[in-house]
Amino acid sequence: MSAPTTDDLHAITEQVWLSYLDPEGVNPFLPSPDAPPSPHVIAAVSVTGAWEGHVVMTFSERAAELSSAALLGMGDDEVTPDDIADAVGELVNVIGGNVKSLLPDGSLLSLPHVVTGESAGNTRWPAAVEVCRLQGSWQDEKIAISVWTSKSAGEGA
Amino acid sequence: MIIVPTAMIIDDSRAMRLILRRIVTQLGFEVHEAGNGKEALDLLETVDPMPQVALIDWNMPVMNGLEFVTAVRSQERYRQMTLMMVTTESEHGQIVRALAAGAHEYVIKPFTPEAIAEKLALLGLVPSGIV
């Protein structure tokens, strides 16, 4: 079983968007070279066991609001910080779960972890190296999805 | 007397509970919600009639979906309740574990409303003509 690729992330993201954020298929996630601008909202799940690493979604604050509003069926001016934490946490949970399906059996997925505000800008994974990254925009707002593996696991692979 | 079918949605994500609530409500179900397996077990003690079906996430805090399925299947009084896992866990071994513990069906996230409706129809829980 090989490591996940950017193409894998794109296919998973398309499926998640069609299921939850763009069921009519009229407003897809569009890959682009631009990273989300600060301030960020970061949602992550960790994978442990047979494979060690993280799946991370980085949203511009506006992208997080729009995604949460779409997922919850609310107006984007109605979503609260708790709504955003819940909704982007579920998005990374679903994307992370589908990434995990590409990894060796015996890997476990953590509960999602969401960081907002200044703390998000300081979020780092110093003991991990990036495996692949998908950057894009949705409703003109930037979102990045990346997969990281712990250095020790990567060196052993 | 008209008996309205009842579903219990067990997921720690409020967003996911809302998505599933919309789907099963459109299929004619009344809905109870719980944020983890323990909350669901506690809720089962209070609701009457017992839900016909529970839609159960796997990864939840306090009590996960597999533990809930195991707990429900250990009690004779819940024997009639249909259990459907709705989860990101797609590893073959995990699916086998859930089915062996007593789950009837397994849906992998992301799902479409049609996929949930079709599974419920296969289980005989949706009146013909709705799906």
UniProtKB/TrEMBL annotation, chain A:
SUPFAM superfamilies: CheC-like (SSF103039). Pfam families: CheX (PF13690). GO terms for biological process: chemotaxis. Residues 41-119 form the Chemotaxis phosphatase CheX-like domain. It comes from the Bacteria. Keywords: Chemotaxis. This is Chemotaxis phosphatase CheX-like domain-containing protein. It comes from Planomonospora parontospora.
From TrEMBL, chain B:
It holds the Pfam family Response_reg. InterPro entries: Bact_response_regulator, CheY-like_superfamily, Sig_transdc_resp-reg_receiver. One of its GO terms (biological process) is phosphorelay signal transduction system. SUPFAM superfamilies: CheY-like. The keyword Phosphoprotein applies. Keywords: Phosphoprotein. The modification 4-aspartylphosphate is found at D57. SMART domains: REC (SM00448). Residues 6-124 form the Response regulatory domain. PROSITE patterns: RESPONSE_REGULATORY. PANTHER family: RESPONSE REGULATORY DOMAIN-CONTAINING PROTEIN, STRESS RESPONSE REGULATOR PROTEIN 1. This is Chemotaxis protein CheY. It comes from Planomonospora parontospora.
